[in-house]
Amino acid sequence: METALRRKEFLGGVRDESPILLGVVPFGLIFGALAVTSGMSSAAAQAMSSVVFAGSAQFIAAQLLGADASGVVILMVVFVVNLRHALYSASVAPHLQGLGPGWKLVLAYLLTDEAYVVTITHYNAEGDAHGRHWYFLGAGLTLWTSWQISTAVGIFIGAQIPRSWPLGFVLPITFIALVVPALRDGASVAAAVIGGVLGLAVGGLPYKTGIIVAALVGITVGMLVEGRKR
Amino acid sequence: MNPWITLVGAGLLTYGIRLSFIVLMGRITVPDWFQRALRFVPAAVLSAIIVPGLFDRGDAIDFSVRNPQVWAGILAIAVAWRTKSVLLTIAVGMAALLALQLILG
Question: How far are the Cα atoms of A192, A223, A224, B20, B40 from residue B33, in angstroms, in the given order?
């Protein structure tokens, strides 16, 4: 593959991921601050951002570690909270089939919410799909780098981050920016509305298992709406 | 359990989940309905995180009309729908929240 195409795809991923950093960087700052104030060492907090690399699971794990929860409980919670990534994995898998094992190992590591949505939108776009894994790499590395740096800054300034920052809002607003522009037809709107309403209705289920239940019903409704139009 | 063991375990679990279908799909045959279902993954999963998140104010779930996050969220959805701009959506959503927090408390 020619270098020009690789560079164009890679830089395309960097460009399209960049606006999302407006939501990701505050999230990373707050994670770094919360991890050290809940009792983790700076080294462990920073390591978590590269080893786990999953924002919402990191928040919960850091709080549980600070509360001296057992390791087994923490692992179970992380598993459930990150289970949605199995759906992302299935979703990108058909596009990665032609790639070697090295690419698959690297891109799986970079498969976060924010990199996934940007990348899958690009994979589903019209035109020549050649070289789109470079776009995935560009988007994923942009997010990875900003997550590491914002975690480090958060650890450094720690408790100086005001408690009044609306932490609960940074994640949903970022996801609104990602998902709403990609709603192209009635079926995907139905999947989103049902997923959202049910997410609220079953939100009380322990450790965010409600997300999986709501998502599966939303996906099913999307397919039913799509099927009726055929 | 040593926190470092927990941390590495959490990383391996997360990585395993992310790698699962990427590795599996080349080896098993995936049914057609499954392939069709995948198109709805982003919309359904992210919405299931978005809507509860708008009502969650950190220390409590707030269903009142004085919850500024819900109004800022609705505005952000409108901006995202009209402009399709990620940057504008996040910027307007955050600015609206800060303004509404001053008004609604």
Answer: 19, 9, 11, 19, 12
Nearest-CA distance B36 → chain A (Å): 7
Q: Is A62 on the interface with B (CB under 8 A)?
A: no
Chain B: nearest CA to A134, how far in angstroms? 16
With a cut of 0.95, is the ipTM above it? no
Question: Are A200 and B51 in contact (CB < 8 Å)?
Answer: yes
- Which pLDDT tens digit goes with each residue over A30-78? 899 888 888 889 999 999 999 999 988 898 888 888 778 788 888 988 8
Burial class (CB in 10 A: 0-12, 13-18, 19+), A26: buried
Question: Where exactly are the structural domains of chain B?
Answer: 1-30, 32-104
Residue A10 structure tokens:
């890679």
Q: What's the full length of chain B, in residues?
A: 105
Q: What is the pLDDT of residues B73-97, one digit of tens each?
A: 999 999 999 998 888 999 999 899 9
